[in-house]
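User: Fold this; C-alpha coordinates only.

Assistant: Input:
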Amino acid sequence: MSLDVDVVVDRGSFRLSARLRAPAGETVALLGPNGSGKSTLVATLAGLLRPARGSVSLDGVVLDDAEGNRHVHARDRRVGIVFQDLLLFGHLSTLENVAFPLRARGLAAPAARQEAAAILSRLGAGHLAAVRPARLSGGQAQLVALARALVGGPRLLLLDEPLAALDVQARERVRALVRETLSGFEGPRILITHDPSEAMNLADRLILMEGGRITQVGTPGDIATAPRTEYAADLVGLNLFVGRLVPAGEGVGVLETSGSPLVVAWPRELHPEVEHKVMAVLRPSDVALFPARPEGSARNVLRGTITAITRQHDRSRVRVASRPPLVAEVTPASVSRLGLAEGRTVWASFKALEVRVVGTR
Protein backbone atom coordinates (compact mmCIF):
# COMPACT_ATOMS: atom_id res chain seq x y z
CA MET A 1 0.00 0.00 0.00
CA SER A 2 1.54 3.31 -1.07
CA LEU A 3 0.48 6.88 -1.72
CA ASP A 4 1.50 8.37 -5.08
CA VAL A 5 0.97 12.07 -5.71
CA ASP A 6 1.77 14.23 -8.73
CA VAL A 7 -0.47 17.30 -8.70
CA VAL A 8 -0.85 20.97 -9.44
CA VAL A 9 -3.44 22.69 -7.24
CA ASP A 10 -4.56 26.30 -7.67
CA ARG A 11 -6.04 28.33 -4.80
CA GLY A 12 -6.57 31.88 -6.01
CA SER A 13 -3.13 33.29 -6.80
CA PHE A 14 -1.35 30.45 -4.95
CA ARG A 15 -0.18 27.40 -6.87
CA LEU A 16 0.96 24.12 -5.32
CA SER A 17 3.09 21.81 -7.44
CA ALA A 18 3.96 18.58 -5.62
CA ARG A 19 5.23 15.15 -6.51
CA LEU A 20 5.82 12.57 -3.77
CA ARG A 21 5.55 8.91 -2.86
CA ALA A 22 4.90 7.55 0.63
CA PRO A 23 5.10 3.77 1.08
CA ALA A 24 3.08 1.82 3.62
CA GLY A 25 4.42 1.87 7.15
CA GLU A 26 6.45 5.06 6.69
CA THR A 27 5.82 8.35 8.47
CA VAL A 28 6.57 11.31 6.21
CA ALA A 29 6.66 14.81 7.67
CA LEU A 30 5.77 17.80 5.50
CA LEU A 31 7.80 20.63 6.93
CA GLY A 32 7.75 24.23 5.82
CA PRO A 33 7.05 27.83 6.81
CA ASN A 34 3.54 29.29 6.85
CA GLY A 35 2.19 29.63 3.34
CA SER A 36 4.41 26.92 1.88
CA GLY A 37 1.48 24.75 0.75
CA LYS A 38 1.38 22.07 3.45
CA SER A 39 -2.29 22.48 4.31
CA THR A 40 -3.23 22.78 0.63
CA LEU A 41 -1.55 19.45 -0.03
CA VAL A 42 -3.33 17.85 2.94
CA ALA A 43 -6.71 19.16 1.78
CA THR A 44 -6.02 17.70 -1.67
CA LEU A 45 -5.10 14.29 -0.26
CA ALA A 46 -8.22 14.35 1.92
CA GLY A 47 -10.41 15.08 -1.11
CA LEU A 48 -11.39 18.58 -0.01
CA LEU A 49 -9.64 20.21 -2.98
CA ARG A 50 -9.45 19.02 -6.59
CA PRO A 51 -6.14 19.30 -8.44
CA ALA A 52 -6.03 21.38 -11.60
CA ARG A 53 -3.61 18.87 -13.10
CA GLY A 54 -2.20 15.48 -12.18
CA SER A 55 -3.33 12.57 -10.05
CA VAL A 56 -3.49 11.05 -6.57
CA SER A 57 -3.57 7.29 -6.06
CA LEU A 58 -3.61 5.15 -2.94
CA ASP A 59 -2.72 1.47 -3.06
CA GLY A 60 -3.21 1.52 -6.83
CA VAL A 61 -6.68 3.07 -6.60
CA VAL A 62 -6.96 6.43 -8.39
CA LEU A 63 -8.54 9.03 -6.10
CA ASP A 64 -7.94 12.03 -8.36
CA ASP A 65 -7.23 12.26 -12.07
CA ALA A 66 -7.67 15.79 -13.35
CA GLU A 67 -7.25 14.82 -16.99
CA GLY A 68 -9.76 11.96 -16.65
CA ASN A 69 -12.14 14.11 -14.58
CA ARG A 70 -12.09 11.58 -11.73
CA HIS A 71 -12.51 12.73 -8.14
CA VAL A 72 -13.38 10.44 -5.23
CA HIS A 73 -15.37 12.32 -2.58
CA ALA A 74 -13.69 12.85 0.79
CA ARG A 75 -16.14 10.56 2.63
CA ASP A 76 -15.36 7.67 0.28
CA ARG A 77 -11.55 7.84 0.42
CA ARG A 78 -10.99 6.02 3.72
CA VAL A 79 -8.53 8.70 4.72
CA GLY A 80 -8.20 9.46 8.43
CA ILE A 81 -7.39 13.08 9.19
CA VAL A 82 -6.70 15.14 12.29
CA PHE A 83 -7.30 18.77 11.37
CA GLN A 84 -5.18 21.52 12.88
CA ASP A 85 -8.30 23.05 14.45
CA LEU A 86 -9.67 19.56 15.33
CA LEU A 87 -13.18 20.52 14.03
CA LEU A 88 -15.11 18.53 16.62
CA PHE A 89 -18.88 19.01 16.51
CA GLY A 90 -19.92 20.90 19.63
CA HIS A 91 -23.48 19.54 19.68
CA LEU A 92 -22.32 15.90 19.60
CA SER A 93 -20.83 13.77 22.36
CA THR A 94 -17.32 12.37 22.07
CA LEU A 95 -18.76 9.00 21.04
CA GLU A 96 -20.95 10.60 18.36
CA ASN A 97 -18.02 12.69 17.06
CA VAL A 98 -15.89 9.58 16.62
CA ALA A 99 -18.76 7.66 15.02
CA PHE A 100 -19.55 10.49 12.58
CA PRO A 101 -17.30 9.35 9.67
CA LEU A 102 -18.89 5.89 9.80
CA ARG A 103 -22.40 7.34 9.83
CA ALA A 104 -21.47 9.58 6.87
CA ARG A 105 -20.49 6.44 4.94
CA GLY A 106 -23.88 4.89 5.67
CA LEU A 107 -23.10 2.56 8.58
CA ALA A 108 -26.04 2.01 10.93
CA ALA A 109 -25.92 3.99 14.18
CA PRO A 110 -25.53 1.03 16.59
CA ALA A 111 -22.63 -0.45 14.62
CA ALA A 112 -20.97 2.97 14.24
CA ARG A 113 -21.22 3.65 17.98
CA GLN A 114 -19.84 0.21 18.81
CA GLU A 115 -16.80 0.75 16.59
CA ALA A 116 -16.31 4.28 17.94
CA ALA A 117 -16.43 3.00 21.52
CA ALA A 118 -13.81 0.38 20.69
CA ILE A 119 -11.33 2.90 19.27
CA LEU A 120 -11.87 5.30 22.20
CA SER A 121 -11.17 2.46 24.61
CA ARG A 122 -8.01 1.53 22.69
CA LEU A 123 -6.72 5.08 23.08
CA GLY A 124 -7.56 5.17 26.78
CA ALA A 125 -10.40 7.63 26.28
CA GLY A 126 -13.41 5.40 26.81
CA HIS A 127 -14.42 7.35 29.89
CA LEU A 128 -14.94 10.45 27.72
CA ALA A 129 -17.65 8.87 25.53
CA ALA A 130 -20.53 10.97 26.88
CA VAL A 131 -18.59 14.24 27.20
CA ARG A 132 -19.10 17.08 24.72
CA PRO A 133 -16.12 18.97 23.20
CA ALA A 134 -16.61 22.10 25.33
CA ARG A 135 -15.86 20.05 28.46
CA LEU A 136 -12.67 18.45 27.10
CA SER A 137 -9.13 19.63 27.85
CA GLY A 138 -6.79 20.31 24.94
CA GLY A 139 -5.14 16.91 25.28
CA GLN A 140 -8.48 15.12 25.56
CA ALA A 141 -9.84 16.89 22.47
CA GLN A 142 -6.73 15.81 20.56
CA LEU A 143 -7.38 12.20 21.64
CA VAL A 144 -10.94 12.41 20.34
CA ALA A 145 -9.77 13.85 17.01
CA LEU A 146 -7.18 11.08 16.72
CA ALA A 147 -9.82 8.43 17.49
CA ARG A 148 -12.10 9.89 14.80
CA ALA A 149 -9.23 9.72 12.30
CA LEU A 150 -8.55 6.06 13.08
CA VAL A 151 -12.12 4.77 13.18
CA GLY A 152 -13.23 2.61 10.26
CA GLY A 153 -9.78 1.38 9.25
CA PRO A 154 -8.43 4.21 7.06
CA ARG A 155 -5.84 3.43 4.40
CA LEU A 156 -4.04 6.78 4.80
CA LEU A 157 -3.50 8.85 7.95
CA LEU A 158 -3.09 12.64 7.78
CA LEU A 159 -2.12 14.62 10.88
CA ASP A 160 -2.17 18.41 10.40
CA GLU A 161 -0.18 20.10 13.21
CA PRO A 162 -1.42 17.57 15.81
CA LEU A 163 0.48 19.14 18.72
CA ALA A 164 0.27 22.84 17.85
CA ALA A 165 -2.53 23.87 20.22
CA LEU A 166 -1.35 21.98 23.30
CA ASP A 167 0.44 23.21 26.40
CA VAL A 168 3.86 21.75 27.23
CA GLN A 169 2.64 18.97 29.53
CA ALA A 170 -0.19 17.88 27.24
CA ARG A 171 2.13 18.03 24.23
CA GLU A 172 4.51 15.48 25.73
CA ARG A 173 1.68 13.07 26.55
CA VAL A 174 0.00 13.42 23.17
CA ARG A 175 3.33 13.19 21.32
CA ALA A 176 3.93 9.80 22.92
CA LEU A 177 0.43 8.70 21.92
CA VAL A 178 0.86 9.99 18.36
CA ARG A 179 4.18 8.16 18.05
CA GLU A 180 2.57 4.92 19.27
CA THR A 181 -0.39 5.41 16.93
CA LEU A 182 1.83 6.08 13.92
CA SER A 183 3.99 3.03 14.56
CA GLY A 184 0.89 0.82 14.77
CA PHE A 185 -0.73 2.14 11.56
CA GLU A 186 0.06 -0.03 8.54
CA GLY A 187 -0.66 2.46 5.77
CA PRO A 188 1.20 5.63 4.74
CA ARG A 189 1.32 8.32 7.44
CA ILE A 190 1.61 12.01 6.58
CA LEU A 191 2.47 14.46 9.36
CA ILE A 192 2.21 18.19 8.70
CA THR A 193 4.19 20.52 10.94
CA HIS A 194 6.32 23.65 11.06
CA ASP A 195 8.18 22.39 14.14
CA PRO A 196 11.48 20.71 13.15
CA SER A 197 11.89 18.94 16.49
CA GLU A 198 8.41 17.45 16.14
CA ALA A 199 9.16 16.29 12.59
CA MET A 200 12.50 14.74 13.49
CA ASN A 201 11.01 13.09 16.57
CA LEU A 202 8.07 11.46 14.78
CA ALA A 203 8.99 11.02 11.10
CA ASP A 204 11.11 8.57 9.12
CA ARG A 205 11.54 11.00 6.23
CA LEU A 206 11.17 14.75 5.74
CA ILE A 207 9.69 16.59 2.78
CA LEU A 208 10.53 20.29 2.86
CA MET A 209 8.12 22.70 1.19
CA GLU A 210 8.63 26.34 0.26
CA GLY A 211 6.44 28.60 -1.85
CA GLY A 212 4.19 25.80 -3.07
CA ARG A 213 7.01 23.48 -4.13
CA ILE A 214 8.89 20.55 -2.64
CA THR A 215 12.48 21.71 -2.25
CA GLN A 216 14.13 18.72 -0.58
CA VAL A 217 13.34 15.15 0.45
CA GLY A 218 15.39 12.97 2.77
CA THR A 219 16.01 11.68 6.26
CA PRO A 220 16.89 14.23 8.94
CA GLY A 221 20.50 13.08 8.54
CA ASP A 222 20.41 13.62 4.76
CA ILE A 223 19.16 17.17 5.14
CA ALA A 224 21.59 18.00 7.93
CA THR A 225 24.47 16.75 5.77
CA ALA A 226 23.53 18.62 2.59
CA PRO A 227 20.75 21.23 2.88
CA ARG A 228 19.68 22.64 -0.49
CA THR A 229 18.02 25.90 0.52
CA GLU A 230 18.46 28.60 3.13
CA TYR A 231 15.30 27.36 4.87
CA ALA A 232 16.67 23.80 5.03
CA ALA A 233 20.01 25.02 6.37
CA ASP A 234 18.33 27.16 9.01
CA LEU A 235 16.14 24.20 9.93
CA VAL A 236 19.14 22.06 10.81
CA GLY A 237 21.09 24.97 12.28
CA LEU A 238 23.61 25.65 9.50
CA ASN A 239 24.70 28.68 7.49
CA LEU A 240 24.19 28.14 3.76
CA PHE A 241 26.07 29.95 0.98
CA VAL A 242 25.25 29.71 -2.72
CA GLY A 243 27.53 31.14 -5.35
CA ARG A 244 30.27 30.68 -7.92
CA LEU A 245 33.40 28.86 -6.77
CA VAL A 246 36.51 30.15 -8.51
CA PRO A 247 40.02 28.61 -8.27
CA ALA A 248 42.39 30.79 -6.23
CA GLY A 249 45.57 28.78 -5.82
CA GLU A 250 46.64 25.36 -4.62
CA GLY A 251 43.75 23.76 -2.72
CA VAL A 252 41.92 27.07 -2.27
CA GLY A 253 38.90 28.66 -3.89
CA VAL A 254 36.92 31.86 -3.62
CA LEU A 255 33.16 31.51 -3.26
CA GLU A 256 31.53 34.54 -4.86
CA THR A 257 28.25 35.06 -3.00
CA SER A 258 25.66 37.84 -3.08
CA GLY A 259 27.78 39.50 -0.38
CA SER A 260 31.49 39.37 0.35
CA PRO A 261 33.58 36.67 -1.37
CA LEU A 262 34.52 33.81 0.95
CA VAL A 263 37.77 31.86 0.96
CA VAL A 264 37.13 28.11 1.13
CA ALA A 265 39.09 24.89 0.82
CA TRP A 266 38.76 23.48 -2.69
CA PRO A 267 36.78 20.20 -2.61
CA ARG A 268 38.65 17.21 -4.00
CA GLU A 269 35.73 16.02 -6.11
CA LEU A 270 35.64 19.21 -8.23
CA HIS A 271 37.94 19.94 -11.17
CA PRO A 272 40.55 22.40 -9.85
CA GLU A 273 40.73 24.58 -12.96
CA VAL A 274 37.04 25.15 -13.65
CA GLU A 275 34.49 27.45 -12.06
CA HIS A 276 31.51 25.77 -10.40
CA LYS A 277 28.19 26.99 -9.05
CA VAL A 278 27.99 25.41 -5.60
CA MET A 279 26.24 25.28 -2.24
CA ALA A 280 28.36 25.36 0.91
CA VAL A 281 27.57 25.15 4.62
CA LEU A 282 29.18 26.47 7.77
CA ARG A 283 28.35 25.41 11.32
CA PRO A 284 27.37 28.33 13.58
CA SER A 285 29.73 26.96 16.24
CA ASP A 286 32.63 27.59 13.82
CA VAL A 287 31.88 31.33 13.67
CA ALA A 288 33.79 33.46 16.18
CA LEU A 289 32.49 36.90 17.18
CA PHE A 290 34.55 39.93 18.19
CA PRO A 291 33.72 43.51 19.23
CA ALA A 292 36.56 44.79 17.01
CA ARG A 293 38.23 43.50 13.85
CA PRO A 294 40.24 40.42 14.90
CA GLU A 295 43.85 39.63 14.15
CA GLY A 296 44.54 36.00 13.38
CA SER A 297 44.71 33.22 10.81
CA ALA A 298 41.03 33.09 9.85
CA ARG A 299 40.68 33.84 6.13
CA ASN A 300 37.11 35.13 6.35
CA VAL A 301 36.27 38.24 8.39
CA LEU A 302 32.87 39.93 8.03
CA ARG A 303 31.32 42.95 9.72
CA GLY A 304 27.63 43.16 10.59
CA THR A 305 24.91 44.15 13.03
CA ILE A 306 23.33 41.74 15.50
CA THR A 307 19.64 41.32 14.66
CA ALA A 308 18.65 38.63 17.19
CA ILE A 309 20.01 36.57 20.08
CA THR A 310 18.13 33.42 21.11
CA ARG A 311 18.96 31.07 23.97
CA GLN A 312 18.89 27.34 23.19
CA HIS A 313 19.71 25.21 26.22
CA ASP A 314 23.35 25.95 27.10
CA ARG A 315 24.09 27.89 23.88
CA SER A 316 23.06 31.21 22.38
CA ARG A 317 22.46 31.69 18.65
CA VAL A 318 23.40 35.12 17.37
CA ARG A 319 22.09 36.36 14.00
CA VAL A 320 24.35 38.85 12.29
CA ALA A 321 23.26 41.00 9.33
CA SER A 322 26.57 40.73 7.52
CA ARG A 323 27.02 40.14 3.79
CA PRO A 324 26.28 37.28 3.50
CA PRO A 325 24.22 37.00 6.72
CA LEU A 326 25.52 34.64 9.41
CA VAL A 327 24.36 32.75 12.47
CA ALA A 328 26.96 32.21 15.19
CA GLU A 329 26.63 29.94 18.20
CA VAL A 330 28.34 30.96 21.43
CA THR A 331 27.98 30.36 25.15
CA PRO A 332 25.76 32.65 27.25
CA ALA A 333 28.93 33.60 29.12
CA SER A 334 30.43 34.84 25.84
CA VAL A 335 27.32 36.93 25.16
CA SER A 336 27.87 38.67 28.49
CA ARG A 337 31.65 38.93 28.19
CA LEU A 338 31.57 40.40 24.68
CA GLY A 339 28.61 42.65 25.44
CA LEU A 340 26.59 41.20 22.58
CA ALA A 341 23.17 42.77 22.09
CA GLU A 342 20.69 43.43 19.30
CA GLY A 343 21.73 46.44 17.26
CA ARG A 344 25.42 46.16 18.15
CA THR A 345 28.06 45.96 15.41
CA VAL A 346 30.36 42.93 15.59
CA TRP A 347 33.04 41.19 13.55
CA ALA A 348 32.59 37.54 12.61
CA SER A 349 35.41 35.28 11.50
CA PHE A 350 35.80 31.69 10.36
CA LYS A 351 38.47 29.59 8.66
CA ALA A 352 38.45 28.43 5.04
CA LEU A 353 38.57 24.79 6.13
CA GLU A 354 35.36 25.22 8.11
CA VAL A 355 33.28 25.99 5.00
CA ARG A 356 32.11 22.69 3.47
CA VAL A 357 30.90 22.47 -0.14
CA VAL A 358 27.89 20.13 -0.16
CA GLY A 359 26.79 20.15 -3.79
CA THR A 360 26.77 21.78 -7.18
CA ARG A 361 23.87 23.54 -8.88
